[in-house]
Structures are given as C-alpha cells and as structure tokens.
Amino acid sequence: MTMISLNQPSANPTVRLYPEPAEVLENPALSCYFLPLMSFTHEHIQDQQEYTIHLLGTDGLSCTSPRPCAENIIHGFQYNEGRYRYMGDPAAFGEYNNISEVYGWLLEDFNRNSEYYLHEKISAADYGANVQVALNSIATFDSRRYAEGIYSYLYTKTHYQRTGEFHQMTELTDNQLPVADDLLLDHLTAQELGQTLLAELPQHTQHSYNLRPEMIVGGTERSRFMSPSGHGAILAALDPKHKEIYLLNPSAM
C-alpha cells in the first residue's frame, strides 16, 4: 500500500493507513495484541534522520502481569530499520493466554462473512452480541470488547481498501457525521496531551521510563480505527539515542 496524504499541507508528515503487520512488527504474530493503525514519517532534528513511526492499537486487553515495557499505559519497542521489536514480554497479558486462537477465529469469521457485514452495516455492538456464544466456547477471557475492536478494525480497513476513503465505524454503520479532525495528531498537539501523562507516569507504572514531553512525535485517537467505545489517544515517543519507540495510552491513567 502506498503512502497517502490526508489532505494535509505538503510540509506535514506523510501518512499510511493500515500497514501490514509484517511491515511494522519484526514478529507479525504480535498483531493479535498490537494492530497496526497507521504509520507516518518523522524527520528528527537532533540526528537528522527520518523515522517511520507506527501507531498500534490495543483494545479490550490489559496487562494483568505488568513487565518492563509492557504495562497498560506504556509499551516499548526497539526501532530497527523501520520495524518494531517488542521489548516487553507478552506474558504481561497474563490471562489472555489463548488470544492468538481468538484472534484467528475473528479473522476467519470476518473473512468468511465480510460481504454480509458490510452490506447490512452491522455495528460493532451488534457483532459483539452475535458472536458472544461462539467466543464463550473458545476464549478463556471476557472477549466482548476485544471482538468489537478487531471487528471495527477489519471493517474500517476493508472499507478503506475498497474505496480509498477513510471513515470510522460509527460513520459507516450508524450514519454519524464524519469527524473533521485530522487522523494524525501533530507533535505539538500530541505533546500537550502527553504532558500530564509523563508527569504522572511513575505513579501509574511499576517500572521506570526516562521520557520527556519533547520526545512525543505524534499520535491518533484509536476509536477512529477500533471499537467506538474504546476512546483514548495512542501517542508515540521517540528516543533517538537508544532507537526506541514508546507507545503511550493516556486513558489507562
């Protein structure tokens, strides 16, 4: 998929929606935890290098056994030639031990029934209710919100790939008016959102992270890609010295 410009001034970063997991993650199997929402280019002034920053969405999951770089409010990745290597331990998502099986079932279900879902404009809430019985026989965790998040992601992704136009779930299924705000939060807006989070980060994490507001380079509202009920921005902080990316979730505070 080519990079696109979302009606932004030419000086703004170029944005790519729904990159494939293998292009974003060194271990694509981790996409059952981290769905690739969008990528954007960031030219860092300090080292004069251009980075491709990936914003990943989690929905309906929480870190029940937090580990370094794997906590509800923060996930850390090593940046390696445009892809992310997860520095956390998936074991942090302790009780979701069969998440890959549930994710696989949801992918298969959507691929099999996507024409019906799109034609009938099945909402995320209705989908979650419709598949709950089936998922109860598979999932070892409460999978309702996770299912709604994956479904919304696949629905909006499929619509975008077919039409070239991005619309969030509620616009497509509930006839809500389009959101006028840019998908990509510029670095100044993202830094403003992240200031309070970073100031209070030690109170909400079990491990230490040396992050400063000026490290935040962008973000997005994840509900525009995933479950409409999962409001909260995903912010990206770049540590160019150590080639690390931290994804921050202010709503987890």
What does this structure look like?
The N terminus is likely disordered. The strands form 2 sheets. Strands 4, 5, 6, 7, 8 and 9 form a 6-stranded antiparallel beta sheet that branches. Helices cover 32% and strands 21% of the residues. Strand 8 and strand 9 form a beta hairpin. The protein starts with 14 loop residues before the first strand and ends in a 5-residue tail after the last strand. It has 253 residues and is an alpha+beta fold. Helix 2 packs across helix 5 and helix 3 crosses helix 5.
Per DSSP E runs of 2 or more residues, the count of β-strands stands at: 9
Structural category is: alpha+beta
Which series of helices and strands comes N to C?
EHEEEEEHHHHHHEEE
Strand percentage: 15-25%
Which stretches are poorly predicted, pLDDT < 50 over at least 5 residues?
A: 1-11
Oligomer: single chain
How far apart, in Å, are the first and last alpha carbons? 35 Å
Largest sheet, if any?
6 strands, antiparallel
Q: Report the mean per-residue pLDDT as an integer.
A: 90
Q: How many whole angstroms does the radius of gyration measure? A: 18 Å
Shape: globular
The percentage helix is 25-40%
- Total DSSP helices: 7
Q: How is this structure best summarized?
A:
With 253 residues, this protein is α+β, with helices and mostly antiparallel strands. The protein contains seven helices and nine strands.
